[in-house]
Amino acid sequence: MNGIPNSIRDEFKRVIKDYKAITILPHTEPDGDAIGTALGLYNTLKSINKSVEVVSVGVPKNLDFLSGYSKIKSKSQFRDSLVITCDTSDIDRVSIDITNRVVINIDHHKTNSMYGTLNIVNPNAPACSLVAYELIKDIFEIPASGYEAFYTSLVSDTIFFQTQNTDKNTFKYACEFIDGGAKPNYISQMLNRHSLSSIRLRGKVYESMRLYSNGKIASVAIDSKTIKSCGADNSDIVGIADQLCSLYSVEFAIVAYESNGGCKVSIRSKSKSILSIVQKFGGGGHIYAAGFFTQKKCQNIIENLIIELNTLL
Ligand SMILES: [Mn+2]
Fold first, then answer.
1. Could you tell me if 184 and 178 are in contact, meaning their C-beta atoms sit under 8 angstroms apart?
2. CA of 208 to the centre of ligand 1 (A)
3. pLDDT for 127-138, tens place per residue?
4. Whose CA is closest to 24, among 77, 80, 82, 71?
5. Is residue 1 in a domain?
6. Phi, psi angle pair for 265, to nearest 5°
7. Same domain, 157 and 258
8. What domain range is 254 assigned to?
9. Helical packing angle, 144-157 and 128-136, nearest 10°
10. CB atoms < 10 A from the CB of 68, how many?
């Protein structure tokens, strides 16, 4: 992973200096990477006396150990603040309208549309926090709470160092975060907690799993009734696709669930790029983990995807 060019870092420094109030936005339906990066920045910028808010809804409960979690707002209370987006490839993936705002776009998605005033995007970074960390580490002193959040982001997006892009550099960053105060065992324990509703939902979802193409493709379609009947919500779906991928035979896993009157789809791949397929459906993401939103019915979209994924087998 390359460092940040000095010209970009200087520009970032100048913009930060210009603003007293900063609004940090993770992507909608946030994961540990988006929230970990956001709270790492939040805790660091707070420590230099900025007024900072993180605005997000549906934040996974297992991130509640992170400093600043309880301060996350569902609506922005600042006007004309500087906006920093985290882990967000497109402007329509944030929860508030940020047109005409000064936006610092910090991300690691290859498909990032470069919507920011300043775009700091590194697709080689295995987690968004590494981009944020490279940007700020020589400018500000990062508090232990910031390192804890950055480490949480790193292990979330690499699924505890299991993804293809995990290399010795990834561990180098992990070491720096641990040096800064992150406690690996504690963070793993916190992240691996599940609510009863989420366990119940997983039970139902795994039972309904379908296999295609000699077991190489696994899929589940989850309707909102099932989610509700378990007392769960959409944040409880995080991790199900990775679990389907743990089946011996599986190459691709599809999770499709009803959301906002349409269907949200997450796809995981063990070894082949699925980016071009999700792009056909207007989506984006990473080479082995990507997704999209569609107005079609979940089961219909799964059938379309099976045809597409079969061409990769
Ligand atoms: Mn990410």
1. yes
2. 28
3. 999 999 999 999
4. 82
5. no
6. -125, 130
7. no
8. 196-310
9. 150
10. 21
39 sits in which H/E element: helix 32-47
pLDDT of residue 280: 96
Number of domains in the chain: 2
Q: Are residues 92 and 207 in the same domain?
A: no
Query: What phi and psi, each to the nearest 5 degrees, are found at residue 291?
Result: -170, 180
Domain boundary among 191, 223, 254: 191
According to DSSP, residue 234 is labeled G
Please tell me whether residues 163 and 243 are part of one structural domain.
Answer: no
Distance 288 CA to ligand 1 centre (A): 12
- AA letter at 193: R
Ligand 1 centroid distance, CA of 34 (Å): 6
Q: Which of 246, 69, 49, 251 is nearest to 159 (CA)?
A: 246
User: pLDDT tens digits, residue range 257-291?
Assistant: 999 899 999 999 999 999 999 999 999 988 999 99
CA of 87 to the centre of ligand 1 (A): 5
Is 141 found in the same domain as 30? yes
Q: How far apart are CA 113 and CA 116, in angstroms?
A: 9
Give distance in angstroms: CA of 214 to centre of ligand 1.
Answer: 31
Q: Tell whether 293 and 228 lie within a shared domain.
A: yes
